[in-house]
Amino acid sequence: MVFYMAGVTLWNYFSSCLTSVSSVFNSNAGIFGKVYFPRLIMPLTIITSSLMRFLVQYFMFLMFVCYFYYKNLIQPNSWMLLTPVVIVLMAVMSMGIGLVLSSMMTKYRDLSMLIGFGMQLLMYASPIIYPSSSMPEQYQWLLNLNPLVPMFEYMRYAYLGIGHFSLVSLLYPTGFALVVLLIGILVFNQTQKTFMDTV
Fold it and tell me: Which residues of the chain have pLDDT under 70?
């Protein structure tokens, strides 16, 4: 149970942030059309409000971790202190991708249905409900292309004491998150100038 929760707790935060940010233009067209304010405030608000929901789920997860630790079934370690960094990376990554998708959705409304389907595919392409070690060795490189993988591996290693993790493994998702956020902000700022003509 705790193995499953370690992946799902993190995934729920990422997916809710990305899905909500991707529809920020269409969902707030009425507000954007009446009052001017920095448009990036809305995605940041979504990320923050989703963090509140994550903290509730995270607290429940910690309760199960404490129970199974008391039963001497898992071995959490000091890597748990790195959790805020991992959460920030997930937030940055989801916001960057969401900003790009939100800009595209101003012209292609039906993209919202594709996003929902894509999120389901991404969930199964990430080691959330299964360990990455279960992937055949010849396909491990394909799994490692997913920048979310080190985050889920971290959760299992820090809270359950299983699997493998090192700080070096976070370099790829960190670089990916920063690049996609930069692209997302640039595309978002460009789209906000003309989006009222298309929404």
Answer: 28-37, 193-199
